[in-house]
Design a protein that fits this description.
The protein has 17 helices and no strands. The chain has about 400 residues and is mostly helical. The protein has one domain. Helix 4 packs antiparallel against helix 5, helix 4 runs parallel beside helix 16 and helix 5 runs antiparallel to helix 6.
Length: about 400
């Protein structure tokens, strides 16, 4: 388990009895750290080329969309069928918390509070935190199963996993990034942070203008992270257009994203409120359990039918779509310590277009339908989105039709 997750749990345990008192603005830190993370990701994640899309990028992107649709459907149907007294959007936060993480779930849950979802932000954080348990415990169970069944491509036992994966301490130092500016002018880390600040500033300005002109779109603040990805992609495109992309260092941007993600996880866990857990303990457990089982089942069933390096891709994507990007990468380092497959690269390349062209439009449509209380239409739209995602594997000719026995 990563240090950030352990630290968050320690903070949570000591905060509930009042031994530690955190800032009342702790959940706001989650919101801002999330947006910083995605602004950085947009800068170091290039859009895939046509050649990339012919490989695992497209299939990984479709998988992300399909599993998100399944998670939202499972959460929504469970809420409507079993917990009718709850706001119908309660179960959506399970899907968002699993697929996108506690930060996004908090942002979207908070934006829905004004429309009747009581304590939506905290509920989102709770589901996102439970997702980490699925990522690491179910993820490790998957790894043990794959090694025992000889489905792993690069390791035959956990003895082959580098010690630094278990200890967290590198035996040999690795390069974290490169300087791109002269110290006499500006420190390289400062210029990397300034790009993130610029993206975030433009994002806040843009959403502020939209919501001032159309007050009914106030919920767009819950999608601030998606806007940072969109603005970040534009900034990267402009920098490439004027031949100045060399100023941005991908290594340093990854370190910034990783740092903000670590602090985000700690802040998210420490901001969970005990009264909210007590009030919703039964629906949280049942919906979280159904969502985790559905994610695990479809991941195992789909993997051999849509990928090469089947096992490695399945482990990484399962970790991402129950925890966060760092969860998937950590599990990936266990099964593919030298990154000999393209699993991590294909996920990174597929994430940006997946967010821009699928997740954001879906969330906006869902928002609009929820505000109009058109729950049935909303469920139909999500079902169509999920089914269309499934069909895309066949439309693009990347459905292999294999099963685990064929590998």
């Amino acid at each position: 388990m990563p240090n950030a997750l352990i630290a968050g749990m320690i903070g949570l345990i000591f905060s509930w009895p009042g031994i530690i008192h955190f800032s009342a603005y702790l959940s706001d830190y989650v919101f801002h750290l999330l947006n910083i993370t995605f602004a950085s990701i947009a800068l170091f994640s290039p859009l895939p080329s046509k050649d990339d899309l012919k490989g695992g990028v497209l299939s990984t992107m479709i998988y992300m969309n399909f599993i998100l649709g399944i998670q939202i459907l499972v959460g929504s149907l469970a809420t409507i069928l079993f917990f009718k007294r709850l706001h119908p959007t309660f179960g959506i936060l399970m899907g968002i918390g699993y697929a996108a993480g506690p930060g996004q779930a908090y942002a979207i849950g908070s934006s829905l509070e004004q429309y009747g979802l009581t304590k939506g932000g905290n509920i989102g954080i709770i589901f996102g935190s439970i997702g980490f348990l699925w990522a690491y415990f179910a993820g490790m169970a998957l790894i043990h199963w794959g090694i025992r069944k000889r489905k792993a491509t690069f390791i035959s036992s956990l003895d082959g996993v580098p010690d630094d994966v278990w200890t967290g301490i590198l035996k040999r130092k690795e390069i974290a990034g490169y300087k791109t500016t002269a110290d006499e002018a500006i420190d390289s880390l400062a210029i990397q942070l300034s790009f993130i600040g610029l993206i975030y500033l433009i994002t806040i300005f843009l959403i502020g203008k939209i919501t001032s002109l159309f007050p009914s779109l106030e919920v767009l603040w819950g999608l601030t992270f998606a806007f940072t990805v969109f603005i970040g992609a534009i900034v990267r495109y402009l920098l490439e257009g004027v031949k100045m992309m060399n100023i941005v260092d991908s290594g340093l941007q990854r370190r910034i994203a990783g740092t903000s993600t670590d602090y985000l996880i700690v802040a998210a866990l420490c901001s969970i409120q005990l009264p909210v857990v007590r009030a919703y303990i039964t629906p949280i457990i049942i919906i979280a359990l159904l969502g985790g089982i559905a994610t695990l089942f479809f991941s195992i069933w789909l993997a051999p039918r849509i990928w090469d390096h089947t096992f490695e891709r399945m482990v990484i994507c399962f970790g991402v779509l129950t925890g966060t990007m760092s969860s998937g990468i950590m599990l990936g380092r266990i099964v593919d310590p030298l990154h000999r497959s393209r699993a991590v690269v294909d996920y990174a390349c597929g994430m940006i277009p997946g967010l821009l062209f699928f997740w954001v439009p879906l969330f906006i449509v869902v928002y609009m339908l929820i505000l109009k209380e058109s729950i049935l239409i909303y469920l139909i739209i999500v079902a169509i989105f999920t089914f269309a995602s499934f069909l895309m594997w066949r439309i693009f000719g990347i459905w292999t039709g294999k099963n685990w026995n064929d590998l």
